[in-house]
Design goal:
- It contains 13 helices and four strands.
- The chain has 322 residues and is mainly alpha-helical.
- Strand 3 and strand 4 form a beta hairpin.
- Helix 4 packs across helix 6, helix 7 crosses helix 11 and helix 11 crosses helix 13.
């Protein structure tokens, strides 16, 4: 190709290679406005009005028609005046913080582009971030209310790294039912945030909620490893909830201990693989890597349990929010 033609073509080639801009839509102000307008309204009428308004604004955001959701709506509206200042800080910080986080994330994953629409919303206390379904389509939801309580400080950037990593990881690794799958997803996302923020504190890595996880898990390290080894292929929601949500049969281990075990597994796997290589493994390729890393940790700790098998069935009946 003649040199002049190549020079003229370069801007088009660069534009084609550049990842698209990561954008988001905010529905956080609508909650703020609704609460202020309806403060004197009776609770039942207020909840009905809330549902009607948001079904129009973003159908499916608050879609489950049950009494539990109505109670969460009522509680969130009642609580909102106490968090309004912090909530508005999140609204003002979020556009710049997300843009900065994307630039930072692209130093490791240059072609990163979100495969999902991104929304900033009031989550009714359910999440700071994570994917879920809105009106039948999957989206990444950031909860301004929970961010206001947990991340209005230096943890916002690592938190965004964690959630952006879930988006990147989902391009290669599909949700699956077995316990090792969220162990790998959450552990690798925590490792990604730690590696992208050298010296990150446990608060920045979300390892201090609802109480510090690291020391309490290390105090029962062999037990924590064996819980994961024994339940490695479990598709029981109780096992998964106990490890990652602090509900059910935790047997004395701290709430959300699975995040710390997952971080240690990801760190072990990263001894001879880069983060982009680990992120690019699909389910079938990731399983033996996760099993081998957990086996190495069990051996090092002399934990009294058999390591998981390198191979096993992978099923995908339930799409789990990340």
């Amino acid at each position: 190709m003649p040199k002049l033609a190549l020079i003229l073509l370069m801007p088009a080639l660069l534009a084609a290679a550049a990842p698209r801009t990561v954008t988001f839509a905010s529905y956080a102000p609508q909650f703020d406005n609704f609460e202020a307008r309806t403060r004197g309204m009776a609770t039942d009428r207020r909840v009905l009005a809330f549902r009607a308004e948001f079904d129009r604004i973003l159908p499916g955001l608050y879609s489950v028609a049950d009494a539990a959701l109505d109670r969460r709506i009522a509680r969130a509206l009642t609580e909102f005046p106490s968090i309004r200042p912090a909530y508005r800080i999140v609204e003002s910080r979020f556009p710049g913080a997300l843009a900065s986080a994307v630039r930072h994330f692209r130093t490791v994953f240059p072609q990163f582009a979100s495969p999902l629409p991104i929304f900033l919303v009031h989550s009714l206390g359910t999440r700071d971030g994570g994917s879920d379904y809105v009106g039948g389509r999957k989206a990444m939801l950031f909860g301004a209310d929970v961010i206001a309580k947990l991340h209005n400080d230096d943890s916002l950037q690592p938190f965004l790294d964690h959630e952006l990593f879930h988006l990147e990881h989902a391009r290669h690794f599909m949700d699956c039912d077995q316990l090792w799958c969220p162990l790998w997803q959450e552990g690798l996302a925590t490792y990604a945030a730690a590696s992208m923020t050298p010296g990150a504190t446990d608060h920045q890595l979300l390892l201090d909620a609802p109480a510090p996880i690291r020391a309490a898990t290390e105090a029962r390290w062999g037990e924590a490893l064996c819980r994961m080894a024994v339940g490695f292929d479990s598709a029981d929601n109780g096992d998964i909830a106990a490890a990652f949500m602090g509900r059910g049969k935790s047997s004395g281990l701290p709430q959300r201990f699975g995040y710390y075990v997952g971080l240690r597994i990801a760190s072990e796997a990263a001894r001879n693989r880069t983060l982009p290589v680990l992120a690019g493994l699909d389910d079938e390729a990731a399983r033996p890597v996760v099993a081998a890393a957990l086996t190495a940790l069990i051996d090092a700790a002399h934990a009294p349990c058999r390591p998981p098998a390198a191979n096993g069935a992978i099923t995908r009946h339930v799409a789990r929010p990340a």
